[in-house]
Structures are given as C-alpha cells and as structure tokens.
Amino acid sequence: MPSPTNTASNETLVRFARRISHDLNNFSTVVRTYSELLLSELPPDSSTYADVSEIQRAAESMVQYLARVTRFARAGAMRRVPMDVSSGIAEAVEQFGREHPTREVAMSLAPGVSILADQIWWRDVMAEVLLNAHEAAPPESRITVAVQALGDRVEVTVTDTGSGVSTSLGDQVMEPFVSGKQGVRGAGIGLALVAAFLEVVNGSIAFEREDGRTTVRLEMPAAN
Fold first, then answer.
1. CB neighbour class for 17 (10 Å; exposed up to 12, middle 13-18, buried from 19)
2. pLDDT digits (tens, 9 = 90+) for 37-89
C-alpha cells in the first residue's frame, strides 16, 4: 500500500501529465496544421519542402508522444474486466509487425488465460514492451513472447538479445521521462505506461539478463 505522501505525489504527477499533454497538443496541432498548408503551396522538389516536411514529422511525433502521456495520466480510470491475455498480445504483435516488418516476433501463447484489465490498455502495454525490445536489440534479431499460467498468477515474458536495462538507472527506469536510450523520439514514457498498468492490476515487472539475452517478466493476478 503506497504511503499518503507517495499517493499525493502520484496524483500531482497525473495532474501535471494531463495538463502538459493538453497544452502541448494544442501547440503541436498548430505546427502540424500550418506545416500542412505550407507543403500544399511548395514545390515537392524544393529544399524548403524537405525542411517543412521534417517539421511536420516532428509535430506528428509529438502528437503520438502526447497520446502516450495521456494514456499514462488515465491509467487509474482503466476498467477491469476478464480478458484473454494471449488475444491482446496477438493484437499488439500484429500492430508491431506492420510498423516493423523486418523484426521477427515468435509467440508461445496460452489461449484462455485471463486477467482483470482493459484489452485495449493491455494491447498498448504489450506494444510498448515490444517497442522497447525492438529499440534495444540488434537489427533483425528475434523477439520472443511467451505466456504461462502459474497457479493464481499469469506470467508474460518478452525476451530479446539487447543489452538490457542500465544498472545505473535502477528502479528509475520505470519513472516517466527517464530513459537509457539516446536519440530516440518519445523515449522515457513507454515503461512508465507499463508500470502504471501493472500498478492498477496489482502486477509486477522484473528485468533479467542471462546468456546474452534480456527478459522482461510481467506477472499479474489471474482472473477468477
């Protein structure tokens, strides 16, 4: 059970996330709208067109990033109903495959194993874990996702050949806006979304490094 101080701190962080997401979304919408207008008036082969296109891409990235921040801020309101763990993973892998077609993802699923959560939230959480593995692992190496029932718990593991989480970050890696990655747009919110989800469903996360492979292990209570 979190202490009153930690609870107050979390509530402040959530309010901050909501406000900053709202305000920055307004700013990025203006940038995106005006860049689209400029592009419609510029010749596609001009250097200015290329520059404005980069501005537009940056604005689009900001909108996507803010959507992730908004999900983090709304974690506490997530509905909890029995949902199939493997189904949400399959959806996340399909979505991930469209965005990263050269990355192989092997699945060992367990249909019928359920947790109490929201399926869209769960799909998005798995998408974040897959993206984290993708950004950490060597190009075109395999990512493996596995599900198994452990009594009254459900375990989901995601394994890759990346270098794992930096020991210098420690538990901070799960905090918002903290990242060990360099030069990655939108870094620092993915694992915070995972942590927010696990807090709501009374789950846990662990990082393991063995034989040149990194495993992210999620454990959650099974649905009764």
1. buried
2. 999 999 989 889 999 998 888 888 777 777 766 666 666 677 899 999 999 99
Strand partners, 107: 145
Counting beta carbons within 10 angstroms of the beta carbon of residue 158, is it exposed (0 to 12), middle (13 to 18) or buried (19 or more)? buried
Q: Which residue has the higher pLDDT, 178 or 195?
A: 195
Sign of CA dihedral 185, 170, 203, 130: positive
Long-range contacts of 103-107 (CB under 8 A, 24+ apart): 103/134, 103/140, 103/143, 104/140, 104/141, 104/142, 104/143, 105/130, 105/142, 105/143, 105/144, 105/145, 106/142, 106/143, 106/144, 106/145, 107/144, 107/145, 107/146
> What's the whole-model pTM score?
0.67
Is 215 in a helix, a strand, or coil? strand
- Pick the closest to residue 186 from 46, 72, 41 (CA basis): 72
User: E strands, 35-102, where?
Assistant: 81-84
User: Which runs of E-coded beta strand occur in the chain?
Assistant: 81-84, 105-108, 114-117, 143-150, 153-160, 204-210, 213-221
For the chain, the residue count is 224
Per-residue pLDDT of 157-169, as tens digits, reads 999 987 655 444 4
CB within 8 Å of 152: residues ≥ 6 apart: 221, 222
CA distance 80 to 23: 29
Q: Nearest CA to 180 among 58, 172, 64?
A: 172
